[in-house]
Design brief:
Blueprint: H1 3-79, E1 83-85, H2 86-105, E2 114-123, E3 127-129, E4 135-137, E5 151-159
Length: about 170
Amino acid sequence: MSYNLRKAEDKKLQAAELPVLQKELDKLKAERTTFVSTIKALEKDKAELSLQLKASKENIERLINEKQELTKRIEGLERATIEVKVEDLASAFKKTLKSIQRDVKEPEKPGEMGYFVDKFEVEMKSGLDLREGIKLVQPTAAELKPESLSTVRISLKSRPTLRIAEE
C-alpha cells in the first residue's frame, strides 16, 4: 500500500472517530465542571465546619474551666467550717432575745394584747475547738445530718393587761 493511500485511510478513520471523540470530550468537560463545583462546595463546607469546630473547642475549654472553678469552690465549701466563740454566741442570743422581746412586748393597736417571751431554749449541736478558748465548730457540709442540727425554741405568752375599774 502506498503511503498516500494509507494517509487517506487514516484521515477517513480520524474523520469518523472525530464526532465520537468530540462527544467524549464534551462529556468529560461537563464532568470536570461538576467535579470542580462539588470540590468548591466541599471546600466551603469544610471552612464552615472548621469555624464551628474552633468555636466548639473554645466553648468546651470555657466549660472545663468553669467546671474546675466550681469543683474548687465546692471542695472549699465542703472543707470550710464555721467557728464561733461561746461568748460571742451567748451575746448573739442575748441580743436576739432582747430584739424579740421588744418586738412582741407592746400591742400594735389599742385594745390588742401584748406578749412576752416565756421560754427561749437553744439546743446547740456542734463540735468543740479548744485551741484558743472554747469555740463551737460547725461540721462540714458533707458531715451534716438531720440529727446533728441545732434547735431553737421560742415560746410566747400573752401579757395580761391591767385595767383599773372606775368606781
